[in-house]
Amino acid sequence: MKKIIIFTLLLLLTTLPSTAKGIKTHMDGMRQHGGARSAIPSVKWLTKSLHMLHYKIMKIYSILSVILVTLCFFACKSNKENEYEPEYEPLTIKNYAEVSLGDTTNLIITGGSGNIIVEGNDKVDISTAQNDKQKITLIGKEIGTTNIFVRDKITNESCSIEVNVIFPFLTLNFEKEEGNHLNIRSNSLFVLVASEDSICYAFSYNNMQFKYNDIPIMKGIYHISQNGTMLSFDLKGGNSTFEHTFKLKNDNVAYLLSNMSSINKLPKTYLTASFTDIETGIDFPHVFIGNKVYKTLPKRE
Fold it and tell me: String of b and e for 186-215 (b: at least 16 CB within 10 Å)?
């Protein structure tokens, strides 16, 4: 729009002087050749009118010149401001995060200026870092759901993130061939939640998407006894059940299980244990059990 206005003004400024000059030339000619006819009132009136028109045109020319100079000044200033003002991509971050008590999770931020402020409450500890990618690190402090807010100081964009701090948990897998003896799906993941009701889930693995499916195939409880050397399951789901009691032969795993109430304070651990089915006597020498191996869980409901 500014370019159109400036072009129009330039056009007017180009034509007005020539128009004014033509009028002045005509007036001079009338003075030189008017003779006695200059006394005729109509000729005098015409001369005076042309003189006034010439004066007005030159005045308009002066005003338009000032306007054009002003527009050019602000246009150049605006272009300089735009030249130094960077353009940012929209601030983007996931609007939901899950972290277990005592563990951490990272949220990657894309877009924005990189100059952000994060506000939350006492359910999570928050820290930010910027290397190749800017990220927010959350540490679960208290069980429950809360919201944190991310605001870009430069663009003033903001995002709200719902954060769910869940109970800590252990994960357990049977080796593929050993799982066949227990009539469970290959690569099934057992999740032992460190809650008072000892909830346990079993999730199936999706070989096409390379991840565990949402919604557990079985759900129930687990029970730990004899200082962590006995582990029982009572799970049900659809047409399948998993009711087994195992004897453990690994002291480190027994220690982990006997401290379920405080596993959020224990470091990340991944162990191989040997289980023996109490009912059948079958040995399962390759059972993998871990703490803080998975940052999040599939959907449970």
Answer: ebbbbbbbbeeebbbbbbbeeeeeeebeee
Kindly report, residue by residue over 2-57, the tens digit of the pLDDT.
555 554 545 454 554 555 555 555 555 555 555 444 445 555 555 555 556 555 65
**Angle, to 10 degrees, between the axis of helix 2-33 and the axis of helix 41-84?**
160
Q: Which two tokens stand for residue 119?
A: 């506000």
Q: What is the DSSP letter of 257?
A: H
Give 92-166's CATH code, choosing from 3.30.465.10, 1.10.760.10, 2.60.40.1080, 3.90.550.10: 2.60.40.1080
Every domain of the chain with CATH number 2.60.40.1080 lies at 92-166
Placement of tokens 């162990």 in the chain: 271
Range with the largest mean pLDDT of 36-45, 60-69, 77-86, 136-145: 136-145
More confident residue, 269 or 79: 269
CA distances to 34, 258, 268 from 23, rounded to whole Å, are 16, 107, 94
Tell me how many degrees the CA angle 69-72-78 measures, rounded to the nearest 5: 145
pLDDT at position 296 is: 86
Looking at residues 90-111, what average pLDDT do you find? 91
159 and 136 in contact (C-beta within 8 Å)?
A: no
195-201 — which CB contacts under 8 Å span 24+ positions? 195/167, 197/221, 198/222, 198/223, 198/224, 200/233, 200/235, 201/297, 201/300
